[in-house]
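Summary for the lay section of the report: proteins are chains of building blocks that fold into shapes. Here we show the chain for Probable chromosome-partitioning protein parB and then a coded description of the shape we predicted for it.
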Amino acid sequence: MSDPSKPKDEKEQEPRSPDLRFVALSKIKPLPGTYVKDEPRKDYSGLIADIKKNGLQKPVILRKSEKEDEFQLVDGFHRCKALEQAGMLEVRADVYEMSLAQASEYRKGHRDKPLMPVPGKLVPYPPEEPAKADKAPEAPAVGDEELPENLKIPLTKEGQPETVTTMKVANIRPFEGHPFAVRDNKDMWDLVDSIKKFGVLEPVMVIPHKDGGYEMVSGHRRMRACQLAGIENIPVIVRNLDRDEAIISMVDSNLKREEISPMEKARAYQMKTDAMKRKMGRRTKEEIAQDEALGIKRMNADEELAQQMGESPATIQRYKTLNKLVPELQDLVDEGKIPVNTGADIAQMKPKEQKVLADAIQKEAKVPSGTKAKELKKESQAGSLTTEKIVQAVAPTKREEMPPLKVTMLEEDLRPFFPDKRTTIPDVKQGILEGLKLRQTVMERQKAKAAAGKTVKKAETPTR
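The coded shape description reads as follows.
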C-alpha cells in the first residue's frame, strides 16, 4: 500500500537486488589515454526522468583499475552525468578485468557495433569472502546527550544496498570546512514546508566523526530545514569513508545546486583537487615509464575535474586562484562587482597591495577594468607596483568627471520658435546652437562690462 504522505508523482522504489553491483560515481575515473568525444549535455532532464521512471536499464561498463577501489569508465558517460545531475551517488555497473588496449578498442568500436562483445573477464559480484560475523558499531555520542545503548547504526559497505536508519539531528555536525553557505532564504523555507508535509524523502549521508557523533557529508540544507521545522530525527545513510573520499563526495553532491556563488565554487574546486591529488599520490618512475611506453597521457587533478565539470582546466585554475583574494575582495566577487577573470588577476597581487586596492575601491565606488587588473598583476610581479598606481587604477577618468550631456526636448516646446512646417531636425539643431552661441556672447559681454565697472570704481576710490 502506498504511503499517502508522499507526493503522488513519487515512484516507490523496490529493494535493490544484492546480486547487482553499484559503484560510487566518485570512484569512477576517465579511461587513461583517451578523451571523451561526447561533450556533457546542457540538459539531462529527459534521461533523468526516464531513469527515475524505469530505473537504469543498462549498467555502465567499467574497467577494474590497477589502483585498489578505483574504476575506469569504458561505456556510459551520459548515464553517469545524468545520475550526477539527479543527485545520485552510485551507478549500477558491470566491472571487467581487461587491458587498456582492449578497453580503448571496445570504447571506439561498440558505438558502430552495438552487439560487440565486451572483452576481458567479468569480475564476479558479490565477491566470495569467508563468512565472518560483522558487528555493527555503536553510534558514538555528541556532547552531553547520548544515544540509547541499543541503537545500532550500520555502516553501508561500498557497492551494497543502502542501509537507511534514523538519527537525531543533534548528533550530526556540519562537515568540517564546508565551503557552501546554507541560507535561510525563500528556497529554504519552501524546503521546510515540503519536509513538514512529506518528510525527508532522500536520506542524508554522514560519516562517523573522530571525536564522537557523526559528520554531515551530503544533506546540510535538509538538516537545517529539519532544525527550522522542529523535527528532531532525520533518515541517514552512514558511510565509512576516509577524509579525502568524504571531501570528494561532499563537493560533488553540493556542486549540483542551482545557485552557487563564485567563491563557493572556488573553495569547492580547491578542496576537491587537493583531495584528488592526495588520492592519486606521487607516481613512481616505473609507473611514468610504463605509461610512456604505452603512449598513455594521464590527466592531472585540474584536467580531471575540468572534464567532470564540463569546463576547461584554465577555468578551474582561475576559480582556485580566487582563494588568494583578501576577504574584502572575495565579497566583491560574490556580489558580482568584480568578474572572475579580473579577480583571478588581482589575486596574484600581494595581500598588502590587495588591501590598498580594496580601500581605493570603497572610496571611489569603482573597480578596475580587466585591462587595469592585468597591469596591476604585472607591476606586482615585477616589484614595481606603488600605492599611487593602485589608487590611479580606480580613479575616475576625465569622461567620468565630466559626463556627456544628453538633452531631450519635446516638439510642443520647440514649435513656437520654428513655426515653418518645413523645418527639419538639422535646422532645429542649428537654430538651438546659434541661440546658445548668442546667449554665450551676451553673457561674456555682461561679464566683461561688470569687470570693467569694478575696475573704474576701484580707481575712483580716494586713498586715505
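Put simply, here is one thing we learned. The first strand starts at residue 22 and ends at 24.
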